[in-house]
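Can't paste images in this forum, so I'm doing it all in text. The chain is below; anyone willing to post the predicted structure tokens underneath?
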Amino acid sequence: MSVQSHDLHLLTGAYAVDALTGDELDEFEKHLEQCPTCAEEVRGLRETAARLGLAAAIAPPPSMREQVLDAANRVRQLPPSGPRTLTAGLTRPARRLRRRLPRPIAVELLLTGRRLSAAEAARWGLVNRVVPAGQVMTAARELAGAICAAAPLSVAAALEILRETEATAVAAGYAIQRSGGLPAYQAMLGSADAAEGALAFTERRPPVWQGR
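Text version of the structure:
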């Protein structure tokens, strides 16, 4: 398999640690004879690899993990470089952005390409909550637990209604909801869980959902 010439420059690291084989190795060694830049880079990488091989392994302090996670939570990712395209504001995500944010904020983001921080996204209601990086899974499990504790048929009905009516006017949304064409909503209305919810409320006890 032939390696394109512009790809050969990317193989210095692999060559320095003897990770190339076959045709790829042959082509890169021929390239190395004609490319002083790659040859110099290979020499430097091999020297570094040799020093790393002699280095003593030292366990990092226990606090380093939390320090790295805290820094990752505070440092913003740089936006991708390169020229903006004329169609940047016409993509589907951009159209959704205009519906989710106040117009001045959406226009600023679309015209400048600026990225929202986590705190800004929370302030504008684009995310449910913001937590430190080390607590993401804990917060996600707490939210999932709260959803799972709700009546499963009610959750399915709510998602169905949201999906089918969120792009409609209020009156049209109610008309869709009453049309009988939402199977999850109809199943919830006549379910044993619907009766259980009302009964548990009157008896002042936690409901026991059956999913039927």
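DSSP finds 13 helices and no strands in the chain. Residues 85-89 have pLDDT under 50 and may be disordered.
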